Amino acid sequence: MTIRRLPPETVNRIAAGEVVERPSSALKELVENALDAGATKVEIQVDHGGLARILVADDGSGMTADELPLAVERHATSKLAPSAEGVYDLLNIYTLGFRGEALPSIGSVARLSISARVKGEDACRILVDAGAVGPVSPAAFPGPHGARIEVTDLFYATPARLKFMKSERAEALAVTEEVKRQAMAHEAVAFTLDLDGRRALRFAAEAAGVEGRLRRLSEVLGRDFADNALLIDQTREGVRLTGYAGLPTYSRGNAQHQYLFVNGRPVRDRLIGGALRAAYADFLARDRHPVAALYVELSAEEVDVNVHPAKAEVRFRDPGLVRGLIIGALRHALAAAGHRSATTTAQGALGGFRPQGAVPSYTPTAAPGWRGSGMWSQSPPVTTLLPGLSERSARVEFEGPPLEYAETQPEAQPPVQELEDFPLGAARAQLHATYIVAQTRDGLVIVDQHAAHERLVYERMKTEMSEGGVARQALLLPEVVELDPADAERVASRAEELAQLGLVLEAFGPGAVLVRETPALLGDTDVAGLVRDIADDLAEAGQALALSERLAEVCGTMACHGSVRAGRRLSAPEMNALLRQMEATPHSGQCNHGRPTYVELKLADVERLFGRR
């Protein structure tokens, strides 16, 4: 087989296939060049999904007439500077791009026009048509400095690639998502996007910092995000994590609203998915996903941005450190949120009310439990126990005698005025033996008694497990689980960590492990399947998620069965005791599956329902 040297135009088109996959990837390169040039305003115009035309105009530093030919030459870049010895350091990359391949790659498969002006000099222009570079010529340019790059007829020089493009609508959506990611990464930069002549996005420049970033995120992710986001700001061993994560009750049905930015660069990384799943494991069902925008800042030497031609992925020198930081910071923020629940639950509840124009006729009849005084009698309190770890972990301590509401016992009324000052207020009624209605100073709260008690029991079980460890059960006959040699070594190296979770095993030859004990909570479990799942988790995420998640799932099931059931009547002291424990228990705003345990309605919202406001 004869070895041939490829012509430059073919080399450029091959490079374009790696760097420019679709219109959105071409736009990404152009926007990042503008940001690296110090732009504070980026204007984007896209026609027919970007296949017909892409225009990116910025107010950055611009380019001189001598720099324009270099800009469309392969491996020519302004992003790298040599040291005193003439060495280019590829380990310290502080810009969004550095390869010097984007513009020549785009010009090799499309028609490319670049107009630029440096402050104090005349504007100039250069054209590239399917790899053919034209001369530099004078140009008209609005503004004192910056660049205007226009790409037309993308992939016309490579018809085979053009056939694999999606519909114009799909490409336009991809372009919109790319602009949103860049806007989220750079809140101090103004962005506008026009699709086929219509304004699709407009983001004004925000002040750099926490408040400006939250305003920008709210513009992208929705206005409700600001009311339901938890601030993240943690540092560990030189790595800083900032950003915002949504409350568990403010979740989505897919993971599309999870964003990771590394040193200002939007990236896609499996790391964030696994870390978010681990951090929210106690709060969300498997089919629900949290909303999060996380920003990682670390030394350029600790991250490799050169692992993907389009710079869409990065590689951390210590991924375990970054993952642990994300999980720890998220759990800390969730714990600090206490019993807080998403505001969207109240909005949904208010939306369910429909004003009625007429009141249906009704003939009152005697109802069970009605005492004739306008109040309901309450059943005596019943102690609810969980058949699990211990009585203490499953009991809600209801204090005080049962309260009988009766006309003849006015002194038995609770001090409602004092209880209203608590966040969840004073219990005033129970609806359908399932929902507690409480009154606060400025509204009312409706609590799902079963979901709320389930979270209380679950948190007590977790505390008891952490204090006393996980109970183990010895296998009558130790089980040998065969694995790939690398997986077996990985699992055996984590034997001490797994033992703390109740799974005792040891290496058994080059491709197997011997399991001696399993967590008692799991009962009669599939030992081989469990170990294989753990091996997969260790290979992918570096932590044994399968075992911890199974234990959490079992505890959640036990907590569910051992909680106050829907349909049980509670006395006023019992209801108020439940409310006070919710206020003192972390994460009590949602049950173990991510559903809200209570809905709070402000008095002003209720008044609007009746036309009082």
CATH class term of the largest domain:
Alpha Beta
Reported by name, the CATH topology of the largest domain is: Heat Shock Protein 90
Fraction of helical residues: 25-40%
Shape: globular
Ranges where pLDDT stays below 50 over 5 or more residues in a row are 361-414
Distance between the termini: 84 Å
Mean pLDDT: 80
CATH level 4 superfamily of the largest domain: Histidine kinase-like ATPase, C-terminal domain
CATH architecture of the largest domain: 2-Layer Sandwich
What's the short version?
The chain is an alpha+beta fold.
Topology, element by element:
Blueprint: H1 8-19, H2 23-36, E1 41-47, E2 53-58, H3 67-71, H4 102-109, E3 111-117, E4 124-129, E5 132-133, E6 137-138, E7 146-152, H5 159-162, H6 168-185, E8 190-195, E9 198-203, H7 210-221, H8 224-227, E10 229-236, E11 239-246, E12 251-252, E13 258-262, E14 265-267, H9 270-279, E15 289-290, E16 292-297, E17 303-304, E18 315-316, H10 319-336, H11 343-351, H12 416-419, E19 426-431, E20 435-440, E21 443-448, H13 449-468, E22 472-482, H14 485-493, H15 495-500, E23 504-507, E24 512-519, H16 527-540, H17 545-561, H18 572-584, E25 598-602, H19 603-609
Parallel strand pairs: 1-8, 13-16
Antiparallel strand pairs: 1-2, 2-7, 3-4, 3-7, 4-5, 4-6, 8-9, 10-11, 11-16, 12-15, 13-14, 17-18, 19-20, 20-21, 21-25, 22-24, 23-24
